[in-house]
Amino acid sequence: MLTAIEGALIEVLLYYFFFEFKSIYIYIYNLRIFLFGQKFLLYRFEIFEVVL
Question: Where, by residue number, does the polypeptide cross the bilayer (predicted)?
Answer without folding.
Answer: 12-35
